[in-house]
Amino acid sequence: MAEFETLDAGGESIAVRKNLEVPMRDGVNLIADVYHGTENKPRPALVALSPYGKELQAMALTMPAQRRPSPMWDGCIEAGDITRVVKEDYAHVIGDLRGTGHAEGEHIGNYNAGGVSLGQDAYDFIEWVAEQPWCDGNVGMIGISYFGSMQVLAAAERPPHLKAIFVSGGHYDFYETTYHGGIMWFMPRAAREGRGGDSGWAFTDNVKSRMLETFSPGEIQERVAERLADPDVAAWPNLVHVLNYPKNHEAWFDIITNELDGEWYEERNPITLAPNIDIPVYLQIDQGRGWTMDGTIELFDALQGPKKLDIGSYPPMQSRPFIEEHDKMFRWYDYWLKGIENGAMDGPAVNVFVEGSREIASGEQWPPLPVEYRPLYLRPRRKLSFEPELMGAEYAAPDGFYQAPLTVTDKVEILRWDTEPFDEPTEMIGTGAAHIFAEIDQDDTNFILRMWDTAPNGKRQLITTGYLKASHRELDERTTEGNPYHPHTRTEPVEPGTVEEYVLRLYPFANTFKQGHRLTVELSNAEPLADEHNSLLPPDAFHLPVGRPVTHKIYRDAKHQSRLVLPFTVKGVEA
């Protein structure tokens, strides 16, 4: 074997192989660092691939894990605990994707690189690793978020030596990663550019916009003008800047100029590729980031091979450097890569931590327990009730709020409704829906709904969220009771002054409301800048606010039954 340098970290002696060239089939070289034990022998390898730079990942050797809201938290140190990987006798292989870090080639778009699928590059990378003398031919993968998405893209290509994957906190449906209910989410900008707690991509001169590569200057100019005509976009300085200077923010420019779902996102959608995956897959996600849970569950349902789904507890953000879930991961890989009979496949396929009761609900599918969808109606005097309102609109006058743009105010107006205290523990597991009958005086707005568990002392925890841009209210054929779907393939402006029904998808959750607790729901068209939940998120984890003044009237009367439709578990019945 080739010589290596050694270092000591956490009392562990580690062999380090730096800047290894990994050839791709088109002649481009990716670059990798490898960490393993000093004993000169082959061992299973865990591969981590991203555009964030392998040198940043090496900080896991020296930086204690940081939790939000620590200012040292860096969302891009996601490749795992190097020292722990080595201690468990695996080789930790951290690579730079093409066009980033020290790698050659062009990086164009998010999951496309120089016209080459990143899954194809991952295939070549994994097969090269398997042939090295320090690897015994058994390869898995490691890392969260972008690293997690890369695991799915790699597995869909079926490299022969990739024996299993363990994905924690991945992002999948790329449209749903960037637009929640049609409302733009700012976090991809942070991950790309290095803002608000993220170091961002490791820039090279060969990172390009897919849109600029695909369309003519005239077509781009037309598209930019169309986006700047949106008052929400035009009111936000960063978006105006990106649209005028796209080469400085190429991936973010691509997202801004594709506000509808369709082909541009579909070719980057790991969920579409998931039916090609037949190797063992362990999916893990924590509650509190509802859209990510939704994609994880959708991916789980599409997989064809042995699989596990583990939904963990709140809060929403894991440590950086990423250290959580390693015990479960090594048990998984010891079983599938080392052949150790440790019972990793025993027990139910799905395990869900239920907030409130702090118990585990288990089953063979999501939701793990049988559920019955029941409505909770918005009522006058800001109440939520299992009984609908009997009075008409002439007596049950609508609730309302006027929201000025955040360009002229920093106050976010929020409507709130509460149930009476529950007289017994009440468990809900699944997705949900919010049917909101509303009248607005503009042709568009946002509806942002947040559902809380409020304790008798007033302390509360976020349970789930729902987002919908009013012009994206169209539902499609997948919609069922309590489980709405929006295609997001076209917009339908609202006729001001008309009452419309807006059905928000409430992202998956699992919670037991204890005796004496209340269910609280809040509705707004923007997010408060700081509260109990947002303090746990990076500064850029917000959505594009409405850029025009809007008056909202929320009807909840006998004719307009605004309500939540929620998944109450049914005890004593097998799923």
UniProtKB/TrEMBL annotation:
InterPro entries: AB_hydrolase_fold, CocE/Ser_esterase, Galactose-bd-like_sf, Xaa-Pro-like_dom, Xaa-Pro_dipept_C, Xaa-Pro_dipeptidyl-ppase/CocE
Annotated Xaa-Pro dipeptidyl-peptidase C-terminal domain residues: 330-565
A Pfam entry, by short name: Peptidase_S15
Gene Ontology MF terms in the entry: hydrolase activity
UniProt keyword list: Hydrolase
Record's keyword annotation contains Membrane: no
Protein name: CocE/NonD family hydrolase
Organism in which the protein naturally occurs: Kocuria carniphila
